[in-house]
Amino acid sequence: TSFIPLDQNPMVTKLLDFLASDSNPEVVLLGSSLTLIPSVRSDDQLTGRKTRYDTWYRHQFINAYPDAKYLRQLLQRHLGKDVHIANMAVTGAMVSDECLILEKLLASGKTPQVVVVEVAERGFLDKLRANIEKTPVYQVLADFRCLKDILKRNPSPQEIQDFVVGNLWYYYKVKADYRAFLAGWFSGVIQHPLNLWEAAQGCRRQNVLLPLNPENQWAALYTPLTHDHAKDMQFNHSIYNPPDMQLFAKQSWYMEHLLKIAHEAGITAVIVNMPMPRENTALIPAYVRKRYHHLLKSLSYRYQAVFLDLENSPDYQLTDFEDSSHMNASGGHKLFSTLAKTISCRTRISP
Question: How many CB atoms within 10 Å of residue 115?
Answer without folding.
Answer: 27
